[in-house]
Amino acid sequence: MDPHGGALPHEFDHTHANVSGGWLRAATFGAMDGLVTNTSLLAGVGGGGLDAHAIVLSGVAGLAAGAFSMALGEYTSVSTANEQIDAEVRVETRAQARHPQAEQAELVGMFVDMGMSERTARAAATEVHGDSERAVTIHLTHELGVDPTEKPSPLVAAGSSFVMFAIGAVIPLLPYLFGFDSLPTGLALGGLGLLVAGALAAGFTSQSKVRGAVRQLLFGAVAVGATYLVGLLIGGVPG
User: What parts of the sequence cross the membrane (predicted)?
Assistant: First the structure.
């Protein structure tokens, strides 16, 4: 029994985050995209001289279109990646059925490259190949860097992306939704949202929150500034 109370000796001093679920990337990307997209959209149509009603209509339409687009894109992307992994599982399964000795020798070589002695590597490979499913998993993990038993969920990725895009996209719209017709306030809220989202994303990866916040704000400012300029230029053109 571990004296520190963990099931294994190393568990008392550190743990690892679940990086295989797919939700964090989708949620982070969704929130950032929602903030940048709708803040930029508001800057563009506001810079073009549209009234508050047109700005709200554009913002809500952008929220709905973007959220569904992000969700469908994430679902398709993750599903395609999972299907590719399934295809590689079938390839590896056929290879092991047709050339079991060669596949086992290949695993011995990989274990030796990891630092095992040849004797230990042969014993380990023999034990691994005693279970065909386990052998396929180990081979793919070492050869491709993917674990076929730990695939992300397309539904989780799609749902996370949809919800977080909608949350990010509604932030610059808040002043208009509460009857306060002010483009600068909406843009300021969008900028604040980018700061918070950047800091939270950096916190998940144990990076500098200040650096993450400022970086995201600068990226967003480029997009917002460019879109506002486009709105000014097009809005100033006679109809």
Answer: 155-178, 184-205, 217-237
pTM metric for this prediction: 0.78
Closest C-alpha to 56, from 187, 177, 207: 177
What pLDDT score does 7 carry? 53
Distance of CA 113 to the CA centre of its chain: 32
In tens, the pLDDT along 143-184 reads 888 888 888 899 999 999 999 999 999 999 999 999 888 889
For the chain, the domains span 23-229
- 3-state SS, one letter per residue, for the chain: CCCCCCCCCCCCCCCCCCCCCCHHHHHHHHHHHHHHHHHHHHHHHHHCCCCHHHHHHHHHHHHHHHHHHHHHHHHHHHHHHHHHHHHHHHHHHHHHHHCHHHHHHHHHHHHHHCCCCHHHHHHHHHHHCCCHHHHHHHHHHHHHCCCCCCCCCHHHHHHHHHHHHHHHHHHHHHHHHCCCCCHHHHHHHHHHHHHHHHHHHHHHCCCCHHHHHHHHHHHHHHHHHHHHHHHHHHHCCCC
Count the neighbouring beta carbons within 10 Å of the beta carbon of residue 196: 17
pLDDT digits (tens, 9 = 90+) for 88-111: 999 999 999 999 899 999 989 999
**What pLDDT is recorded for position 9?**
53
* Whole-angstrom distance, CA of residue 220 vs CA of residue 232: 18
Residues in the chain, how many? 239
Looking at residues 201-206, what average pLDDT do you find?
77
Q: CA 202, 219, 23: angle at the middle one, nearest 5? A: 45
* Residue 164 amino acid letter: M
